[in-house]
């Protein structure tokens, strides 16, 4: 009889469904109506009992009566409740008519709770789901290792520097940077293009000087700039070139000031000259008009 | 082995051999049961191998010197890049078909200068501090970009809004366990969507010897090593992030360097010290990307048409095969 069962399980002996905590006892039995371990909510200790459970989104009413107590297989009778909330409540009432108030009330409460959480599930699945993708340790390790090796193989700094120098050579930067070779080439081009009265001797001399310059440039890279500036001055024959030189000078100084204002190391060469340099004089037919730089 | 150089007493599977002979083929060092002795023999064996190798090298060097000019050219050491499996989709610079494709694909309006890039940077839900800071730094690196908080919005809903407000690109930085680990780059008016795995993210303060902050100048762009057709389209995607006319006064350069399918991003400031020397200083964040998938339309995980997905079992079989 249920009283005996309860006196055994509830208080004295061991019930495997019972979970005790500091403040309360819980019942883990799946047919339990409230989830607590009480005399009135223990499905083992009540011969007439009912619960509402849901399966795959549909709610069922489970009922247990004394008549079937001897037949464990047929013990729990299952009734499908309608999807309509009010109708389902009526069905519960209808099925549990003449049953104790407590069970009826708790069944309806439980049914309400269940429908509420089912609604929430449906709403959440419509929103964004976060997909958890498990990391595979071996693969992560492999990829990290390969990344390190690729980084070493890439030699990024060198590659970037090379690319930038390439672009400088291909003149994508235009007039911004004046390095002596470039300025000189430009000056030469201007000279060829604009001044019509060019004697061959002059040209030859220019070429010679250009060769000499180039040679100097390659061998003594340190002193290239300082020497170069002067030689550029010496060779300019037309005023236009002088003007261009001046412009170029200004640009360089501007650049230097720009770079100074940015706090970087200032441009070497025109801005500062540490090394002692030699002023080389070449004999030419034409003399330079103005000298913009002090020797 | 004992039989090799020193006949060790009480050890013997072979006959006691003369001094300088190498191990008889039936014996191996691993057959000795005693660990100490085995270790000792193994070290001895290793030393011998090394000596032989050195002797071989010397001999070769001598031969080379002896031959002088007639010596055969030095063998180029094999690298993974050398040995790379030839990819048939490698783009030939003169390929007309590719050129035609590129003139008519989704990036054509950008490359024809009809559109100005405008980027929206956002994260996944509830970003942590590191991700937020990374987004801000990325926004300083990429000109004309805006950072917006996600606040639980669905990407599919924000994409039409972005298109309405004239954004050209969308970057979503995915976060996991407080570090950014993924990047979704989507070109907006129904452009391709690329999903990358992001690793080794370094914020500005973690970079050693960094310079000052990146200024507002439009940086230059370097795209290295995007050889195959797929690499080409990814490269164009990156190019479409930056405006066309870099301001050389700024002297800033953003680099996307592809090496063995890893794309390294760096942001530098350069200065030309001379005709042949340039100094670069790293500012700005750095990260590496690995392409996971490329989708034809905008971001749509369910119904999207994938142009390329990284399938580990099929594509990772060879160490010398790369796809970008």
UniProtKB/TrEMBL annotation, chain A:
GO BP term, pick one: maturation of 5.8S rRNA
GO CC terms, sorted: nucleolus; preribosome, large subunit precursor
Biased amino acid composition, Basic residues: 259-275
Biased composition (Acidic residues): 193-211, 219-230, 237-254
Domain Ribosomal eL28/Mak16: 4-117
A Pfam family annotated for this UniProt entry: Ribosomal_L28e
PANTHER family listed in its UniProt record: MAINTENANCE OF KILLER 16 MAK16 PROTEIN-RELATED, PROTEIN MAK16 HOMOLOG
Keywords of the record: Nucleus
This protein's name: MAK16 protein
Location within or outside the cell: Nucleus, Nucleolus
Listed InterPro entries: Mak16, Ribosomal_eL28/Mak16
Bias (Basic and acidic residues): 276-295
Cross-referenced Gene3D superfamilies: 3.30.390.110
Gene: Mak16
Region feature Disordered, mapped onto this chain: 187-295
Family in the record: Belongs to the MAK16 family.
Superkingdom of origin organism: Eukaryota
From TrEMBL, chain B:
Annotated region described as Disordered, given as residue ranges: 1-22, 48-75
GO MF: rRNA primary transcript binding
Function text: May be required for ribosome biogenesis.
InterPro entries cross-referenced by the UniProt entry: Brix, IMP4/RPF1
Protein name: Ribosome production factor 1
Localization: Nucleus, Nucleolus
Pfam family, one: Brix
Residues in the signal sequence: none
Gene Ontology CC entries for this record: nucleolus; preribosome, large subunit precursor
Chief location category: nucleus
Provenance organism: Chloropsis hardwickii
GO biological process: maturation of 5.8S rRNA; maturation of LSU-rRNA
Compositional bias per record (Basic and acidic residues), positions renumbered to this chain: 63-72
Brix domain ranges (all copies): 117-300
PROSITE patterns assigned: BRIX
Keywords: Ribosome biogenesis, rRNA processing
């Amino acid at each position: 009889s249920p009283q005996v069962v309860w006196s055994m399980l509830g208080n004295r002996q061991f019930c495997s469904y019972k979970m005790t905590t500091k403040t309360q006892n819980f019942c883990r039995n799946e047919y339990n109506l409230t989830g607590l371990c009480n005399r009135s909510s223990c499905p083992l200790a009540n011969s007439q009992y009912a619960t509402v459970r849901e399966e795959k989104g549909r709610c069922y009413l489970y009922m247990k009566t004394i008549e079937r107590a001897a037949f464990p297989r047929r013990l729990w009778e299952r009734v499908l409740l309608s999807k309509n909330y009010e109708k389902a409540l009526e069905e519960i009432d209808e099925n549990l008519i003449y049953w104790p108030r407590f069970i009826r009330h708790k069944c309806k409460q439980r049914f309400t709770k269940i429908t509420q959480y089912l609604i929430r599930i449906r709403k959440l699945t419509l929103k964004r789901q976060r997909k958890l993708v498990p990391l595979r340790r071996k693969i992560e390790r492999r990829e990290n290792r390969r990344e390190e090796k690729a980084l070493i193989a890439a030699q990024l700094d060198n590659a970037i520097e090379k690319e930038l120098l390439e672009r400088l050579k291909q003149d994508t930067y235009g007039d911004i940077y004046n390095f002596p070779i470039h300025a000189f080439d430009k000056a030469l081009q201007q000279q060829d293009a604009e001044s019509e009265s060019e004697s061959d001797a002059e040209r030859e001399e220019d070429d010679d000087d250009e060769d000499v310059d180039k040679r100097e440039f390659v061998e003594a890279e340190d002193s290239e700039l300082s020497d170069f500036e002067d030689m550029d001055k010496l060779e300019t024959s037309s005023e236009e070139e002088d003007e261009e030189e001046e412009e170029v000078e200004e640009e360089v100084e501007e650049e230097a000031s720009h770079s100074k204002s940015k706090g970087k190391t200032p441009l070497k060469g025109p801005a500062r000259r540490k090394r002692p340099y030699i002023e080389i004089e070449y004999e030419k037919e034409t003399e330079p008009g103005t000298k913009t730089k002090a020797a | 082995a004992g039989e090799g150089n020193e006949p060790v007493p009480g050890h013997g599977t072979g006959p006691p051999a003369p001094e300088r002979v190498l191990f008889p083929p039936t014996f191996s060092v691993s057959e000795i049961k005693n660990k100490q002795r085995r270790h000792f023999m193994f070290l001895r064996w290793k030393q011998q191998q090394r000596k032989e190798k050195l002797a071989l090298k010397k001999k070769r060097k001598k031969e080379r010197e002896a031959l002088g000019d007639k010596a055969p050219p030095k063998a180029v050491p094999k690298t993974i890049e050398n040995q790379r499996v030839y990819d048939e989709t490698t783009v030939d610079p003169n390929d007309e078909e590719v050129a035609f494709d590129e003139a008519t694909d989704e990036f054509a309006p950008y490359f024809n200068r009809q559109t100005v890039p405008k980027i929206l940077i956002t994260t996944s839900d509830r970003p942590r501090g590191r991700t937020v800071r990374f987004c801000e730094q990325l926004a300083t690196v990429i000109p004309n970009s805006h950072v917006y908080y996600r606040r639980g919005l669905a990407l599919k809903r924000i994409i039409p809004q972005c298109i309405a407000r004239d954004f050209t690109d969308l970057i979503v930085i995915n976060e996991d366990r407080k570090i950014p680990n993924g990047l979704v780059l989507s070109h907006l008016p129904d452009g391709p969507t690329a999903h990358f795995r992001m690793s080794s993210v370094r914020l500005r303060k973690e970079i050693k010897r960094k310079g000052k902050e990146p200024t507002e100048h439009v940086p230059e762009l370097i795209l290295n090593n995007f050889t195959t057709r797929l690499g080409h389209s990814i490269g164009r995607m990156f190019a479409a992030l930056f405006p066309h006319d870099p301001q050389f006064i700024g002297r800033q350069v953003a680099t996307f360097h592809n090496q063995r399918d890893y794309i390294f991003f760096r942001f530098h400031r350069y200065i030309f010290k001379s005709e042949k020397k340039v100094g670069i200083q790293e500012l700005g964040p750095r990260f590496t990307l690995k392409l996971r998938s490329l989708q034809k339309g905008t971001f749509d995980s369910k119904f999207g048409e994938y142009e390329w997905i990284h399938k580990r079992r099929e594509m990772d079989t060879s160490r010398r095969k790369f796809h970008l």
